[in-house]
Specification:
Layout: H1 3-36, H2 43-50, H3 54-60, H4 64-77, H5 89-95, H6 100-129, H7 133-159, H8 169-179, H9 182-191, H10 196-211
Length: 214
């Protein structure tokens, strides 16, 4: 095997190993954050749970807020691919819908699926933001990302000529933003025992009643 091919092969193997280590670390951190909370979770605890050294945690991912941010990003997307939700086919296809009700019900089901993955992590972040400045900044970023997503949905509904005249555009965006709040999913699914599917159905029905004319 030529040296260049050997080097390329070794590089690919190292990259795959690094990615696997990173996934293990983030998964361990996510579990500890949701079980024990942000404050009680230490880098040493993450390292022990992931079976790596403390140095490896910092090198592969970073500090606690970095761990929580990546855990949230991956939970929203559903995987660790470096592609934002806004750039994924599932959202693009929704935004290409010509029926506002199909758009909103599909988006609601997507939000329900995301809520199942992120609700506990967002709860940990909200608690952390009360005392940690970096966590507070991260929470603000998460809220702004949700707001951007809501704006995109309302913009499409309005472009289709389906937005109700009972709301201003800003009010419609606020309601769509509220629909993506993980606390809503947490209360109805975790606390009250709804299924994720039923939550998605209810959320879609609610958004259609609130945002679509007629």
């Amino acid at each position: 095997m030529p040296d260049a091919v050997k080097r390329d092969y070794r590089s690919v193997v190292r990259a795959e190993q690094a990615s696997a280590t990173r996934r293990t670390i983030v998964a361990a951190a996510a579990r500890l954050f949701t079980e024990n909370g942000f404050g009680a979770t230490t880098i040493d605890a993450v390292a022990q749970a992931a079976g790596v050294s403390r140095k490896t945690v910092f090198t592969a991912v970073g500090g606690k807020v970095d761990l929580l941010k990546i855990a949230l990003d991956w939970a929203v997307a559903g995987d660790d691919l470096p592609v934002a939700l806004a750039d994924r086919d599932i959202l693009r296809e929704l935004l290409e819908q010509s029926d506002a009700r199909i758009l909103l019900t599909g988006w609601a089901q997507l939000q329900a699926e995301i809520g199942a993955r992120v609700a506990a992590l967002v709860q940990a972040l909200e608690v952390a933001a009360e005392t940690d400045g970096e966590a507070r900044l991260l929470l603000a970023q998460v809220q702004e990302q949700r707001l951007d997503g809501a704006r995109g949905i309302v913009k499409r509904v309005r472009k289709l000529g389906a937005l109700t005249a009972d709301l201003t555009v800003a009010e419609a965006v606020d309601l769509a933003w509220l629909a993506t709040d993980a606390a809503l999913f947490d209360r109805l699914v975790r606390v009250r025992g709804w299924s994720t599917g039923r939550f998605g159905e209810w959320l879609g029905e609610s958004l259609c009643r609130q945002l679509v004319r007629g």
